């Protein structure tokens, strides 16, 4: 299978971490594909009209996207019953945590585009402030309401750990650790997993 993307992207990294946690490392080849929010990548758009990374090309030649679908697919073919439990209540709780962490990652990427890609004369400070509020609301929710769930290695925990990694990489100034002891403890443990180490940016 071919995973199109760049591990700098939190969505690509969470897909790759899921592949590793599903025991699929040797079956997934990362095809380094860079994207810019203001440029068309024609090769990518042949696979998905959305034109965002990640996209997975399966062994049967089907294009799967977005990251949530790819993560579910890896869990499905890897046969893990713990990354995404089958039982209804647990399953939808984990899917909600996944949506929360992916919503956080969406805001982090938006803020990055706002601060680094948008020309200075076209910036919109009120929008950036609103995105920061949303980021802090997601972090507070993860801190206060998901502590128990974060004890298990699930798709929700993977997405949370990757979002925190992206915060460290791109948004140090947001100081996410302040008053968030639970998330810090979770992060300190999770980043020691091989799946996180093997997908980390090389210094
Ligand atoms: N909902 C998508 C979001 C993916 C996404 O935002 N990818 C970014 C990179 S981190 C991208 O491809 N940006 C290019 C663009 O916005 O044109 C997913 O979960 O895969």
Instruction: Evaluate the radius of gyration.
Output: 17 Å
CATH architecture of the largest domain: Up-down Bundle
Tally of helical segments: 8
Bound molecules: glutathione
What low-confidence regions span 5 or more consecutive residues with pLDDT below 50?
none
Averaged pLDDT = 96
CATH class of the largest domain: Mainly Alpha
Topology pattern, helix = H, strand = E: EHEHEEHHHHHH
List keywords for this structure.
globular; 4 strands; 203 residues; alpha+beta; single chain
Please describe what this structure looks like.
Helix 4 packs parallel to helix 6. The chain has helices at residues 10-21, 42-47, 67-78, 88-117, 125-145, 155-170, 181-190, 194-197, and strands spanning 2-5, 29-32, 55-57, 63-64. The protein is an alpha+beta fold and 203 residues long. Helices cover 55% and strands 6% of the residues. 35% of the residues are buried. The model has no long low-confidence stretch (mean pLDDT 96). The protein folds into two domains: 2-78, Glutaredoxin (3-Layer(aba) Sandwich); 88-193, Glutathione S-transferase Yfyf (Class Pi), Chain A, domain 2 (Up-down Bundle), CATH 1.20.1050.10. The structure holds glutathione. Glutathione (GSH) binds next to helix 3 and helix 4.
